[in-house]
Q: What sequence folds into this?
């Protein structure tokens, strides 16, 4: 496949090739970026990537890049979230559906809403925030959104 055909197909697989002399297992995920959000903060470029939730990696990813040096600072893939009881679940293995909406990037960080349906028939919305400092990502905080059912 030519580079042009690869780019036009929109496909991307992350991973690496294992050394045949080693017995370790290497994970690779099929990924398709569906939305990219960017923000400039101080000398830092912030990028928030949303992947197709029906691929192997339905988790958003945040990356910080140093604009002056043109190099990556750090990145974080957000796959683990709390459920209604505060127990952690993994978006790669524990959900039947997950989607991300209402993404906002600003100088304080990134915020978004996760629409979650767990495999165990529980569905809820999470409002999540990831604080960002000039060269550092904070800890993800998510809170259950209270939904009122008006008659």
A:
């Amino acid at each position: 496949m030519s580079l042009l055909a690869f780019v036009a197909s929109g496909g991307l697989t992350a991973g690496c090739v294992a050394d045949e002399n080693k017995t370790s297992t290497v994970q690779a995920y099929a990924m398709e970026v569906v939305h990219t959000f960017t923000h400039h903060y101080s000398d830092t470029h912030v990028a928030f990537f949303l992947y197709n939730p029906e691929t192997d990696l339905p988790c958003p990813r945040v990356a910080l890049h140093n604009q002056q040096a043109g190099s990556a600072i750090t990145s974080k893939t957000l796959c683990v979230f709390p459920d209604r009881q505060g127990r952690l679940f993994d978006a790669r293995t524990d959900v039947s559906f997950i989607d991300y909406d209402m993404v906002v990037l600003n100088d304080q960080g990134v915020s978004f809403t996760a629409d979650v349906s767990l495999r165990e028939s529980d569905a809820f919305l999470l409002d999540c925030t990831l604080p960002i400092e000039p060269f550092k990502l904070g800890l993800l905080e998510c809170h259950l959104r209270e939904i009122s059912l008006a008659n």
In short: Residues 1-22 have pLDDT under 50 and may be disordered. Helices lie at 3-9. The two ends are 56 Å apart (CA to CA).
